[in-house]
Amino acid sequence: MSLVKYEILSKVAEVQSFTEAAQLLGLTQSAVSHAVSSLEKEFGFALIHRNRNGVRLTTEGQTMLLAMRQVLQAEELLQQEAAKIVGVTKGTVRIGLISSISTQWMPNIIHSLDGQYPGIKIELREGDYYEIEQWLINGEIDCGFLNRTSSKQFNFMPLKKDYLFCIVSSKSHLYNKEEIDLFEIAQEPFIMPSYRGMNDVVATFEKHDIKPNIRFELFDDWGIMSMVGHHVGVSILPKLVLSQLPENVRVIPLKQKSFRTIGLATKQTLSPAAQKFVEVLQQWLEENEEDLTARK
């Protein structure tokens, strides 16, 4: 059946490996290879470029994959609508996450969703803002947590203001301050978060026309906190990632109040299962609003 072949090609493109795709789909590698070859024969052109480093989609393969994913999404929606008619909510929701959401929010949200809608399966993919938006554009996920989006392809639902704080070590002369001015930070060796997409820390400095003294740029939040803890420099991070810090690191508010807006970007049309996920997410946020606000 073509739908199965489409699913196989989609997984091969995602993991860029026939072997890993076969393992994830519970198939043999030869079955995966045969399915892709069958599609190439059916269409009359190559979909996959094979080399020593793995596999990549050809330009034609990228074009066809977008159309295939639309077919797969339509099939998923069809099955979910049929289940909805008979009073059963089931289906798969694919969600893109930034690391702070996966550690601070999602475990509780998944427990709540499992309790209310056990027929809904959740698939999680963790990345930075740029990757999540690209996954949405390519149809690889149904919704994703972002700090904003300029794309008209998606709806963006603001969820929470996550304030930015300065973190300093006990050896920093800023350690005992009650609040820190961005202009003071500009004089210090700075560890800059380097995630792609709209970088809220960079945007904050640019807003106030301040050029920080960047010593290193790191993607991993824990790596940044470790650098600060080892007295390499100071940094700025959102409050949501600061639940566990080295003992000698202190969180200090910024004089220029700044925050990132955490929101959920979704397709214009949501499947029934995705709609239920959004409802459970909103319900959980409402129930925990006081606790979340207290963490500012």
TrEMBL record:
The keyword Transcription regulation applies. Keywords: DNA-binding, Transcription, Transcription regulation. It comes from the Bacteria. The keyword GTP-binding does not apply. Residues 1-58 form the HTH lysR-type domain. InterPro entries: HTH-type_LysR_regulators, LysR_HTH_N, LysR_subst-bd, WH-like_DNA-bd_sf, WH_DNA-bd_sf. Belongs to the LysR transcriptional regulatory family. This is LysR family transcriptional regulator.
